[in-house]
Amino acid sequence: MRRVQVIVSRKRALAIILALAAVIGGIAAWLAFQPTRFADGTPVWTSTIVDGAAGSPPPRLGPTAGYDASSNRMMVFGGAAYNDVWVLSNANGLGGTSVWTNTVAQGAAGSPLGRAGPTAVYDASSNRMMVFGGVSSNAVWVLSNANGLGGTSVWTNTVAQGAGMSSPWRGGHSAVYDAASNRMVMFGGYNGTTYYNDVWVLSNANGLGGTPGWTNTVAQGAAGSPLGRVQPAAVYDASGKRMILFGGDIFTTYYNDVWVLSNANATP
């Protein structure tokens, strides 16, 4: 009887060991799987800074931003009544904790007026962010040392408000930047009465190499153009010199069309 009891105990012990081994093996496989579990390309959101986190910019409507890939920093300007500048380090969530720094204080002397709906483009080679428009503005401002590295961030007004031959003021437009020609390409927007579908190109956009100047390359209402709209999204293909446009609205109608502007920077 004792021998039978011993045999049963050994079987139970073996079963327990096998079960534990299976559990441990499963945990090990799960841990090993984590770094590559989205290698199949599945998009996954991660909240790197929660809403209301201490040290963040105040909430705001209609700011604009640029990104410096070499330093992994995002620069944010304006929105609603704000005219401050904030820089987010480790912006893509890799290499360290994402942290905000207020590089230009709200109301700082020499800054553009606060506004909603401007656009910004960034020139990585000169570390300059160019801002155009927004509510009631058709001025162009350039922020040097925009990523907060290499010196103090300083604003320069390169095209004055109301300057002749400038684009009419607008907000909610879109803009892209061609680094090779140092040109900003701008489309659309709204000024309270008109939904724009014109295209303007700003030469010497970063304020270096010559005086910045606007050229209206596609007239308002030109045949074959997208309908006027506010808040479209745009990206730029530098190799093809093409601006790709998606969506936008006229507040009562929302668009999901795609348009491509060839020779967008208006250079040969």
Structural class: mainly beta
Low-confidence stretches: 1-8, 13-18, 27-33
The largest sheet is: 4 strands, antiparallel
Query: CATH superfamily name of the largest domain?
Result: Kelch-type beta propeller
CATH hierarchy: architecture of the largest domain: 6 Propeller
Strand order of the largest sheet: 1-2-3-4
For this entry, give a set of tags.
mainly beta; disordered N terminus; four-stranded antiparallel sheet; 31% strand; Neuraminidase; 268 residues
Précis, in short:
The chain has one helix spanning 2-33, and strands spanning 64-68, 73-77, 85-89, 99-104, 119-123, 128-132, 140-144, 154-159, 174-178, 183-187, 199-203, 213-218, 233-237, 242-249, 254-261.
Structure description:
- The protein is mostly beta strands and 268 residues long.
- The chain folds into two domains: 2-29; 64-261, Kelch-type beta propeller (Neuraminidase, 6 Propeller).
- It is 12% helix and 31% strand.
- It has one helix and 15 strands, in the order αβββββββββββββββ.
- The protein has one helix at residues 2-33, and strands at 64-68, 73-77, 85-89, 99-104, 119-123, 128-132, 140-144, 154-159, 174-178, 183-187, 199-203, 213-218, 233-237, 242-249, 254-261.
- The strands form four sheets. Strands 1-2-3-4 form a four-stranded antiparallel sheet, with no helix packed on it.
- The longest helix has 32 residues, at 2-33.
- The chain is globular.
- The N and C termini lie far apart (99 Å).
- Mean pLDDT is 90; it is low at 1-8, 13-18 and 27-33.
